Amino acid sequence: MSRVGRQPIVIPAGVQLDVEAARVVVQGPKGTLETVIPAGIQLEVNDGIAEAKRHDESKRTRALHGLFRSLVANAVWGVAKGFSKELDLVGIGYRAEVKAGALTLSVGFSHQVEFEFPEGIEIKVDKTRKAIPNHVATMVVSGIDKGKVGQAAADIRRIRPPDAYKGKGIRYADEVVRTKVGKKGA
């Protein structure tokens, strides 16, 4: 039995879980998410607790059991509280600002980089300084879909990943960047 799959999902107040033929619709104060129910797995909802059950012990069904439970649990958490990731912009002369549904970045290229917000994602720029040397701003990517939030944060980081010698670039807030020494004088 899957250790993840057999854990119950507690449904908080204000969140409604509707099980339809081949999908689960989760509605809450922040929005609505849908998850497809794979073949061989069913979701039982009783007294504010949902449990994923599997019909057989085939390899495919066992593999999808824990995954499906995690997807539903993430949907419940997302519509209730939401997800967010923080990115730090580090580097002298670097800039970040939000303009008309797009994040505009000046990160050392000859041009500014425009990052369009994906649907359901919100990005805020906080210019409060941190203890990181040459810290410019913190970008907070938030939304109700955990996968979209993580993908948007990864796409923003990919624009200018941290440099190995000076540490300049875009990094996750909890990321540790180890810099190399560089050339030694003779």
Task: Explain briefly what this protein structure is.
This protein is α+β, with helices and mostly antiparallel strands. It has helices spanning 59-80, 146-159, and strands at 9-10, 16-19, 23-28, 31-36, 41-46, 49-54, 83-90, 95-99, 102-106, 113-116, 121-126, 135-143, 169-172.
Can you describe what's shown?
The structure is a single chain. This protein is an alpha+beta fold. The protein has two domains: 9-80, Ribosomal protein L6 (Outer Surface Protein A, domain 3, Alpha-Beta Complex); 83-172, Ribosomal protein L6 (Outer Surface Protein A, domain 3, Alpha-Beta Complex), CATH 3.90.930. It is 19% helix and 38% strand. The chain has a four-stranded antiparallel beta sheet with strand order 11-12-7-13, with helices on one face. The longest helix has 22 residues, at 59-80. It is elongated and about 65 Å long. The relative contact order is 0.15.
Features:
Outer Surface Protein A, domain 3; four-stranded antiparallel beta sheet; elongated; 2 domains; 186 residues; alpha+beta; three-stranded antiparallel beta sheet
State mean pLDDT (0 to 100 scale). 93
Rg, alpha carbons = 21 Å
Label the structural class: alpha+beta
Instruction: Please work out how many helical segments DSSP would assign.
Output: 2
The first-to-last residue Cα distance is 63 Å
> Which residues sit in consecutive blocks of at least 5 with pLDDT less than 50?
none
Oligomer type: single chain
